[in-house]
Specification:
The structure holds 2 protein chains of 2 kinds. By secondary structure, chain A is mostly beta strands. Chain A contains 2 helices and 10 strands. Chain B is mainly beta. The two termini of chain B are about 35 Å apart. The relative contact order of chain B is 0.21. The chains are: A mainly beta, B mainly beta.
């Protein structure tokens, strides 16, 4: 009985020693998206650093390519995006000893890419089909996003996680010749708000 | 429904046509009313100016809303509304921008109406209710016609509306 109490005391003492940790991740939801729409391919990686207990500094970045070719239209986009912000672990509130985390996230995001449409045919039964094109042009967007997510340690230092993010566009290239089909890191365009779901795999490097 | 269509990749051309079609919608209202009261018209024929043989509507009855295609290749389109006893014309100026709907369905044209001018043989006035023509749901132009039961003739001057 006494030994058990001592052990438990020792364990809780261990828990209070905070070790900073660096974690890298790959967002695999881009691969899932490619199954549905092979022409659009976002790839994204992340780095987070637990600099204070339950508080993580996070940087995410990635690339987006889109390449469509059909009889009636051609469209390409190519660029990068990045996000920076912080995650806060809510699970500490119920003193969970595991490394699992329920996270609330806040990010600033930026995306920049070139897009062009060398062939556009607008079908029209009355006026006849109209053929046009849009030259290559650069599009930029800035936004803020907030979200909630979950990270579960499935093996030692290996995590899987998902997160749901809501985004508000701060500014974007005004009056582009054509609205982008998909803004890397932000989501489908067509509004000042967007929602995305992410699924990621992570590896954590403990720092002693 | 729309999501299901998009997810299916709209492989049917007809589905794509429905999604990419982006007509201008003109609704008829009774003139001189405090409230907006739809005014169905009978024997309505509609065609683009200069193309009387290519009728978009052909002597149709009980029409209170029409859909007409704006010319995607020009910044202006004009239409003749032929009523039973008289004709009116509506000229529309607009800006165009292309919009990619989906990988399978491709592009559609969005229109921004900048100015509308019209004759007033039967029409008494016209209002641009929504200058952005980007879907098949909005009502873009409201035209007002006299109450047929109270037809004292129409003495309005030709007009124009700007956005």
């Amino acid at each position: 009985m006494i030994t058990a109490m001592n052990l438990s005391l020792a364990a809780s003492e261990n828990d209070t020693i905070f070790h900073p940790a660096l974690r890298i991740g790959v967002d695999v939801s881009g691969f899932a998206r490619q199954i549905i729409e092979p022409e659009v391919f976002p790839i994204e990686v992340s780095v987070d650093f637990e600099w204070r207990e339950n508080l993580f500094a996070v940087v995410e970045g990635g690339m987006l390519t889109a390449n469509m070719e059909r009889e009636t239209h051609q469209y390409t986009a190519d660029g990068f995006f990045g996000r920076a912000g912080a995650d806060y672990n809510l699970l500490q509130l119920i003193t969970d000893p595991s490394n699992d985390a329920i996270l609330v996230s806040l990010r600033y995001g930026y995306s920049r890419f070139r897009q062009e449409a060398p062939l556009i045919i607008i079908p029209d039964g009355y006026w006849g089909d109209h053929q046009t094109s849009v030259d290559a042009d650069t599009y930029q967007a800035h936004w803020m996003e907030a979200g909630i997510g979950l990270k579960t340690e499935v093996f030692r230092n290996f995590f899987i996680g998902w997160s749901l993010r809501g985004k508000i566009l701060l500014s974007a290239t005004s009056e582009p010749e054509m609205d982008p089909y998909y803004v890397g890191g932000y989501g489908s365009s067509g509004g000042n708000t967007a929602m995305t779901l992410h699924y990621s795999l992570y590896y954590r490097f403990p720092i002693r | 429904m729309l999501a299901a269509l998009l997810l299916s990749g709209c492989q049917e051309d007809e589905v794509c046509e429905e999604i990419t079609a982006n007509p201008l919608r003109i609704a008829f209202y009774l003139a001189g009313q405090d409230e907006e009261i739809r005014a169905p018209v009978d024997s309505l024929t509609v065609y683009a100016i200069g193309r009387p043989e290519d009728r978009i509507y052909d002597r149709e009855s009980a029409v209170s809303l029409i859909e007409v295609p704006l010319n995607p290749g020009e910044n202006t389109s004009g239409f003749v509304l032929a009523f039973e006893h008289t004709n009116d014309t509506i000229m529309l100026d607009y800006r165009r921008d292309v919009h990619l709907i989906s990988v399978e369905c491709g592009f559609t044209m969005f229109f921004d109406i900048t100015e509308v001018s019209y004759s007033t043989n039967k029409l008494t006035s016209l209002v641009i209710a929504n200058e952005r023509v980007t879907n098949i749901f909005d009502e873009h132009i409201q035209v007002f016609i006299p109450d047929p039961g109270n037809d004292n003739g129409n003495e309005s001057e030709p007009g124009s509306q700007r956005k």
